[in-house]
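I'm curious: can you give me some protein's one-letter sequence along with its backbone structure tokens because I've never seen that pairing?
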Amino acid sequence: MGLEKSNKSLKPLKTLVKLNKNKMDTLLKEIKYRDSEKDRLEKKKQQIEDESQAEIARYSGTKYAYMLDNYMQNARKSIKIVDAHIEQVVQILEKLREVLETQYSELKKFEIILEMKIKQQQEQEKIAETKAMDEFNSNKFIYEKEG
């Protein structure tokens, strides 16, 4: 009966620990997704830069060289747009990491409290068990003395 009661009193804490772990898992998945998005955007930026350099090398000194200035302006605009997207993703990642850090702190608090409660209950059970054994032994002693 004591064990059943102790498990019930720990249930809310165990639930909080589980919920916090689930939130952390969700945050970690979101961070992973955003990191891959950032990598994709950085590759896209590099691709635009590489293509621009290739076009310059290909058409400079040809009759189409006059179009390179317009082409480079468009490439720079595309790079600025990609840079803006990268910056947005970086800001989102920073916020997500802050939330993750807070969530981790919360999880650790609940885990420490849970651990303390478990130790406390184990000590109480040990005391109750010792008390019961003492009572049993004293009753046994009285019974043997009388008998």
In short: Residues 68-146 form the longest helix (79 residues).
